[in-house]
């Protein structure tokens, strides 16, 4: 038995899908990891995957490149004959599904967030919608990470309702991401945002809020940012602009890290002012570690917060409202801050544990192979 995972980076598989990979291997499946090669490709092979390099242009829409991707995937699927193929991210979801159809292989797709397709309405987004409508006639199952995304696809008649399923995000490893044995308030009180430096993640609003918090609290509060620069595709903040913001001294940029739990452990509250998400893994990990959350009342983000219970909402694209929501957390007494963190942990364990996701995938693979 053989299952293929197709994603736009090897890094993505290694950092976000290894629990699923291990579960598939334990169930007796050989796992093919199909992705562009990067520093994590060798780690996938060391973990027992068979890695197949797949050149892919992750940004933009060029018919010659994209249909070349479909031809490469068709050739791989016909040669390897997987029992099912799992697609993640927009290009594998579209062109991988069309390739699987040509090769006669069942496809299971995951829509983990719509990003610029629905945030920015332009020619590229219209092309993407047309391609979704074409490709999504064929999957055995399409997983969505929140009901807003599912309903939007159904509203635009991009797929049939009978192949839709909902997942609690990509799940979270509640054993790896655990609260510290002893709780204590940080000095200084630390606000953390984990995201790539993209406009749609709310990075502008985060810097606005950091300026307001610096003015109100001085050195008693610090704001940190964990995440890499991404200047491709016109959606990331240009390096020169970002460095200018950092020069103000209101936000400490941590770059990237392979030890995210250690970074979260040092935070008192985790913020994500994103415009739209699938279900943000960073908030799930922070919740599992018992951190209060502040996020936008936007699709995907709202799934992880119960207002006033484990965090607070603010409107998207509003740095002043983000600062006000963060101030509500900062001003909480210790006992209430501790209670809010415990509520986040309980929510992560009861609703977002990765085992729920793994069970759904194993069931979808079983049904797809049975129908085949």
Keywords:
Rossmann fold, 2 domains, six-stranded parallel beta sheet, 15 helices, seven-stranded parallel beta sheet, 372 residues, alpha/beta, 44% helix
Topology (elements, then pairings):
Elements: E1 2-6, H1 10-16, H2 18-26, E2 30-35, H3 41-46, E3 50-53, H4 63-80, E4 84-88, H5 90-103, E5 107-111, H6 116-119, H7 123-135, E6 141-144, H8 147-155, E7 164-166, E8 189-194, H9 203-217, E9 221-226, H10 239-246, E10 251-253, H11 260-265, E11 269-272, H12 281-288, E12 293-296, E13 311-314, H13 319-330, H14 334-351, H15 354-371
Parallel strand pairs: 1-2, 1-4, 2-3, 4-5, 5-6, 6-7, 8-9, 8-11, 9-10, 11-12, 12-13
Overall geometry: globular
The H/E string reads EHHEHEHEHEHHEHEEHEHEHEHEEHHH
Q: Would you count the extended β strands for me?
A: 13
What would you call the structural class? alpha/beta
The DSSP helix count reads: 15
Low-confidence blocks of residues: none
The amount of beta strand, in percent, is 15-25%
The total domain count is 2
Span between termini:
13 Å
CATH superfamily of the largest domain: Glycogen Phosphorylase B
The CATH architecture name of the largest domain reads 3-Layer(aba) Sandwich
> Remind me, CATH topology of the largest domain?
Rossmann fold
CATH class assignment of the largest domain: Alpha Beta
Strand count, sense and closure of the main sheet?
Answer: 7 strands, parallel
Gyration radius (Cα, Å) is 21 Å
Question: How are strands sequenced across the largest beta sheet?
Answer: 3-2-1-4-5-6-7
| Average predicted confidence as pLDDT | 94
Helix content: 40-55%
């Amino acid at each position: 038995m053989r299952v293929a995972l197709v994603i736009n980076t090897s890094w993505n598989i290694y950092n976000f899908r290894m629990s699923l990979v291990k579960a598939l291997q334990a169930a007796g499946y050989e796992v093919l990891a199909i992705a562009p090669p990067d520093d994590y490709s060798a780690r996938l092979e060391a973990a027992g995957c068979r890695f197949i390099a797949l050149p892919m242009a992750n940004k933009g829409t060029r018919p010659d490149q994209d249909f070349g991707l479909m031809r490469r995937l068709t050739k791989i699927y016909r040669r390897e004959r997987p029992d099912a193929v799992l697609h993640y991210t927009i290009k594998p979801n579209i062109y991988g599904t069309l390739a699987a159809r040509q090769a006669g292989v069942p496809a299971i797709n995951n829509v983990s967030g719509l990003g610029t397709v629905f945030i920015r309405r332009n020619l590229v987004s219209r092309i993407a919608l047309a391609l979704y409508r074409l490709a999504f006639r064929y999957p055995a199952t399409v997983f969505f990470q929140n009901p807003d995304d599912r309903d939007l696809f159904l509203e635009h008649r991009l797929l049939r309702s009978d192949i839709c399923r909902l997942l609690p995000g990509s799940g979270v490893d509640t054993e790896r991401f655990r609260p510290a044995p002893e709780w204590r308030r940080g000095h200084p009180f630390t606000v953390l945002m984990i995201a790539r430096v993209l406009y749609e993640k709310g990075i502008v609003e985060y810097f606005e809020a950091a300026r307001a918090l610096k003015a109100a609290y001085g050195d008693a509060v610090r704001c940190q940012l964990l995440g890499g620069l991404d200047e491709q595709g016109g959606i990331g903040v240009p390096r020169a602009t970002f460095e200018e913001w950092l020069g103000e001294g209101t936000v400490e940029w941590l770059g990237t890290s392979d030890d995210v739990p250690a970074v979260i452990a040092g935070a008192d509250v985790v913020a994500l002012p994103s415009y739209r998400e699938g279900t943000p893994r960073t908030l799930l990990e922070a919740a599992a570690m018992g951190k209060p959350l502040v996020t936008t009342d936007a699709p995907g983000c709202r799934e992880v917060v119960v207002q006033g219970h484990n965090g607070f909402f603010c409107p998207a694209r509003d740095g002043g409202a983000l600062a006000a929501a963060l101030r509500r957390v900062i001003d909480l007494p210790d006992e209430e801050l501790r209670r809010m963190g415990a509520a986040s942990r309980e929510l992560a364990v009861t609703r977002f544990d990765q085992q729920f996701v793994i069970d759904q995938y194993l069931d979808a693979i079983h049904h797809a192979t049975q129908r085949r």
